[in-house]
Amino acid sequence: MKNLLLLLIFFSSFGSAFSQNTAINNFIIKENLLKNNKIAVIAVDSLNVPNEEINGLYTFSFSGFTESLNFNNGVAVVPLKIEKSTFIYVKHENESGTHSKLVYVYKKNNDLTPFSVNGWWLFIIPLIIIILAFMFRKLIIFAAILLIVYFYFNFSNGLSLGTLFETFFDGLKNLFN
Question: Domain of life, per the record (predicted)?
């Protein structure tokens, strides 16, 4: 019985040595090194220096689709292939809160170029167009057409209205934290 208890204690401490000790509080999105139309999530610190201590399974949400990513030395490859240029809303939740980023992945031939998008710009650009339209009444039709093209571009590249508001509210929450 004593040996069984010692064996149980040994295996419980062995399992905890490989558990997730480090939380992901910041990350960046890059193109996968294999250039296979996939992106990689890299865990970084507040200065965007890769955190190689991150290993194990972590849950992320990509535009509403939940994926369990296996991190090795701070890097995980997202299994979803990207067929065309698109917006991706990446979100990770842990004990310290929700961490999210809006990324526009531009695809040209077989190269992917991710750009981090500040959610405020998605509201500032239409607001500027509306203000200019009211200042110069002759530009109202031009501004309306410009707004329609702007929202069509966002919607056709995977940025839904729900994601737009979620990005805006995350930006507000981060502003006051």
Answer: Bacteria
Whole-angstrom distance, CA of residue 63 vs CA of residue 90: 6
The two beta strands, 65-71 and 75-77, are unpaired
pLDDT score at 177:
63
> What does the alpha-carbon distance between residue 177 and residue 172 come to, in Å, rounded to a whole number?
9
How far apart CA 158 and CA 8 sit, in angstroms, is: 50
Other CB atoms within 10 A of residue 157 CB: 15
Distance CA(74)–CA(108), nearest Å, equals 27
Distance (Å, whole) CA 162 – CA 166: 6
HEC readout, 138-169: HHHHHHHHHHHHHHHHHHHCCCCHHHHHHHHH
Beta strands in 65-174 (DSSP E): 65-71, 75-77, 86-94, 97-108, 111-117
pLDDT in tens, 13-52: 444 344 445 788 899 999 988 888 999 999 998 888 999 9
